[in-house]
Structure prediction request, 243 residues.
Amino acid sequence: PDVRIDVVTIFPEYLAALDLSLVGKARQRGLLDLRVHDLRDWTTDRHRTVDDTPFGGGAGMVMRPDVWGRALDEVLGAGATLILPTPSGEVFTQRHADELATAEHLVFACGRYEGIDARVAEHYRATGLDVRELSIGDYVLNGGEVAALVMIEAVGRLVPGMVGNPESLVEESHGAAGLLEYPVYTKPPRWQEIDVPDLLLSGHHARIDRWRRDEALRRTAGRRPEMIAALDGTALDKHDVAL
Ligand code: SAM
Prediction:
């Protein structure tokens, strides 16, 4: 397979969704080698303990570095990228997805409770491994599993052969144009007394392209003005709508 992904979690069942849809098909077709591991397999006590109380006091429990270390030493190979989902990480964007899609081996370590002992990130970084602490947004989840699912889906659809029609990746929101996608419509042409814009039924491809570009610009300006501000000088031309 072109891509290898490992996920280590105390809730392997949570990742069952990876059997479905495009990622599931890619696994069946052998494009993606994806394995989910139970962190408790690397515990050594009868209770299969993965956490303990925080040094310094405070609420909640922290995941033990020794258990994580045994798991990751076994799962990580040379050249792997270790991803630690955490709300205190850099915010994951399409840029990260593009970058991670070129990696050959991704390992996700899903935290729970108050998170993973900070020495885990420090240790693997010190070994020279590419370690990424990534957040999927400014909110707090109970665990890293959903965050791993989000990142795996965003990366997975960029793996060659995974999305049926690669052209559908080209014009998307957060793509090369730096704009949100224009609104899309399908049949029927009239629904709930709302008509599909006439132009889209006209067959004038150049005019349709122009309309889509303008709608993408308007939508982006209205919803995400900071994305317009971030466009470089060459991104807009004299035919673009005045925003
Ligand atoms: N006490 C931690 C803090 O405030 O940074 C939050 C721990 S959270 C309850 C438990 C786990 O959920 C984290 O270790 C992380 O794996 C995951 N998690 C929670 N929110 C996340 C987010 N926005 N992005 C990525 N992972 C998240």
Summary: The chain has two domains: 3-156, 174-235. The mean pLDDT is 94. The chain is about 30% helix and 20% strand.
